Amino acid sequence: MRRSSDTVPGWTAALLLLALTLTVTPALTFIAGASANEEGLSPLPDAWYAPPQTASELGIDTFRSSPFLDGRGLPPTRERLPDDPPVIVPFERIGEYGGNARITLGDSWQFFNWEAAATVAPNLRTFLPNLAERWTIRPDGKATTFYLRRGLKWSDGHPLTSADFEFTFNHIWLDKEISPVTSRLIMGGHIEVIDDLTFRYVFDRPHPGFINLMAQYGSHMVDAKHYYRNWHPAFTNREELEKRIADEGFITWMAFLDAQRYSRTEDAKYVPTLRAYRVVSRSPIVMRLERNPYYHKVDPAGNQLPYIDTIDAEIILDNAELTTAKATTGQLDFAGFALRTQDIPILKLGERTGKVSVKIWRRLHTSDVVIQPNYNYEDQRLADLYWDKRFRYALTHAINRDEMNDIIYFGRGVPSQVTVHPTSSFYDEAFPRAHTEYDPDRSMALLDEMGIIDADDDGFRDYPDGSPLIITIEFLDFETPKAITMELVSGYWREIGIDFRLKLVDRALQSARAQANGMQMSLWHADFVTDILFPIIPRWWVPMYTGWDSVLWNNWVRHYLTDGKLGVRPPPVMRDLQTLADTLREATDPVERVAAGKAILASHAENVWTIGTVGLAPHPVVTNSRLRNVVPVGIWGWDNRWTLAYHPSTWFFGDPETETATPDAAATARVKPGGPAAD
Questions:
Q1: 108 touches 320 (CB < 8 A)
Q2: pLDDT > 90: what percent of the chain?
Q3: CATH code, 383
Q4: How far is CA 472 from CA 200, 502, 523, in A?
Q5: How confident is the model at residue 15, as a pLDDT?
Q6: Residue 39 counted as domain residue
Q7: What is the model's pTM?
Q8: Cα 590 versus chain centre, distance
Q9: Residue 612 forms beta bridges with which residues?
Q10: Cα–Cα distances in Å, from 576 out to 208, 323, 571?
């Protein structure tokens, strides 16, 4: 069979330096069932693993805010905070007010995170109160009730109430113009407003995992009704609304709402927020933000968070090289989202200037690449080939994962199939190892057995009828080392005779072709792997999710989501997996839930529906050397919203030479002399 070249040009020197930088980085371990400070990560404050104490519980009765807000005619700090604000313990010490942070727009979800009724702890499995002071789940799992903190306010000073959650559920999630097909996550549900501070989500089937959604994605479950009602036809004359929407340059009111909710237009400055920063302007090149004067959290000294006053978020879209260059040369104060493992060598060189600090976190992805055959591809010959388990076995056993780990990660990753994270209650050490042995002879024997042989002596195998077998994988090279990974995979598969071709696409083309079912094969990375998201969306193992990053089985998903009205009825094994996913989502008995989840993962271990490579890999996070309270080692990924559990509102600019306090000492530290006065 044809062999690929022995080396990957252009990466050798960089990877050699990567080896040197990673050899001084301690290996991270993840222990299933570990408690606080046992995950092999930076020692974190114990307070981060428990519901935050409130000011009254800690005896805090004096509150301060940044001088940046002086002279604006705002109410006193005490009146801008909730009645009993939650107290956030910083990682190192009490911070100092002031400064402007330079980031890219891509890191605006990491540098200042979103706010929801609940939030997640650093251990990837515990949910904690946030906007809500508590919640209860009915024993039958069919209702979850939230109790908001009293006195919470939007950034314009308007009170946050149950009506804001009701608006989003009824007029965003359940609106048929916005979502013609109701998400399975809320199907059969409705919201009941009990009073201004109490509301309940009720479902016709058990949904005990709804708290998972509210903690991880709950920021998208609440919108400022007093603002958005002016742009929604349920509250505004449709004809007048359509005219105003057209004047704003949008075709539909749905598109305008989406742009407003995600701060994509200049009008984002008018949108109230619950986040630590509010938009004050947006141009094609930069979005400027400043502190939210009504942000609800304080530190142990009674200082209203955040510490940093303003942010300039440069609009750099899908250009990892430019972001890396800016991070390396100290032109950004925080960067992480667009950085990749192969960027570490050049970032480490930039660290020598003293301007930046390069922190090596660990991605939560159990595989940096999830190779996705399109089982519903329009060419039935190829779809049938994918469906034959022998073909999937041939592909997976042809991959030399140990070599990939050495070349790309210098032994710091973990060769793995696509499975759950080691901290998960569904984890089994056999799952990541299934069918990962490098055995190209077995691969070639399986292909021979299938009749996939080289019929014309051109060095590549053909279909049994003699026609050429060519597989093209289209993918967006972003967030993880996808391109270098697939260069190696392409070489391995060509060595067993598969004519395998790579095609890089941009985000727009990826989305269009994936959702139109036009790709033979694609890939993404293995998120949705923790106890936060796996129980409610086991997307890599069950036909239940379709989106711009997935091509596995879109027709089977549509059949599932519409109860057979659309799509194609899946094979029995897939229907069985969908039934298990329903049990996983609905079970109120933890034993039954774990059993269903492990059955799903065991099916994947046996059948290899997707193909994994290497995961739990190093991830660079670059900060200004003066940016303090950023944990040196953390877990990076979508499931935990990257930095959400590490409290970015407590980050501040300080003296890099200052000796840091231990995390627990921060709870008793006080604002430094000369700080803001109480008002």
A1: no
A2: 87
A3: 3.10.105.10
A4: 48, 6, 12
A5: 44
A6: no
A7: 0.91
A8: 25
A9: 370
A10: 21, 45, 9
